[in-house]
């Protein structure tokens, strides 16, 4: 995924301390000049921080130039860069109308339309396998305790090791998985895609600097890469687990929310898990959740043209009583911890595969035909 250097042009020369012509056009609302220059600028030139500490997107957003902001975002301009005042372009927006341009076209990543695909059921304690009678087939595995959640324990052990042989083995595995993710990016984001340069830049920075932040940002960019990750989980997930310790300051504690559309069979599986504190859910894919309840609630809505009478709207409330390393807060935590999501308004908390939960409560609102399910995080036992 090399950058196309043939597209690069030299920005007109300027005196030291003087802003580029492109920045000035964005600041002054010169839409025609911006349109003429954009196709000939590299991704780095579009996103460069000017002598005043801002980018072109900051300027257009601050002064409220709607058409220019739209052009820059459609070009894949980075949304997470902080200016001199430690603010993103979204935070500097002149109005709600400008901020709305930064919103994702659809929020379907916060809604799960397959209630059983995303989780696997486990048992925390006990050995009575006959308990599984009546549980839907195909997504239950007969672990007898959380201590036997071998997948979760194994992948949580993927971090640094002092054992030289483990270091060599993990280095080889890491190289293989980087290659797998590179291939998935190429297949998901062709050169013709408006976000190609952004994804190329983020992946190159991850490979060169081994900075996990860039890998996480790739997940949030609006491309088919996110969709394809749901069926090609392993390589990307393992790479995140390799560097998970670098994300300690983003380990989430609190409540987060996700919408879902479930069938009666899906609901019965959660009810099965609720009947005993011993039963545990294990995530199987990446779960986008929001700290903002209204985001999940808004999109957990039945479509009468798409869903049958056997489907129900579900709001999942996910409680993390302690800081959970596999629930990564992608929001801006401080000036030193800028947002990792390209869409900060979503207030996203990303839950990794192999995170464990118990079902604490299920309520049904017959008027709205909506279920309310509460999950509580269970920290993964240490591997012995």
Structural account:
The protein folds into 3 domains: 5-101, Alpha Horseshoe (Serine Threonine Protein Phosphatase 5, Tetratricopeptide repeat), CATH 1.25.40; 106-152 and 247-384, Toxin ADP-ribosyltransferase, Chain A, domain 1; 160-242, no CATH class. By secondary structure, it is an alpha+beta fold. Strands 1, 2, 3, 4, 5, 6, 7, 8 and 9 form a 9-stranded mixed β-sheet that branches. The protein has 14 helices and 9 strands. The protein has helices at residues 21-28, 31-37, 43-46, 56-63, 66-74, 96-101, 150-156, 164-188, 196-209, 212-220, 224-229, 234-242, 264-274, 293-299, and strands at 111-112, 119-123, 251-263, 279-283, 287-290, 311-329, 348-351, 356-365, 370-378. It starts with 20 loop residues before the first helix and ends in a 6-residue tail after the last strand. The model is unreliable at 1-13, 125-145 and 161-166 (pLDDT under 50). The chain is globular and about 65 Å long. Helix content is 34%, strand content 18%.
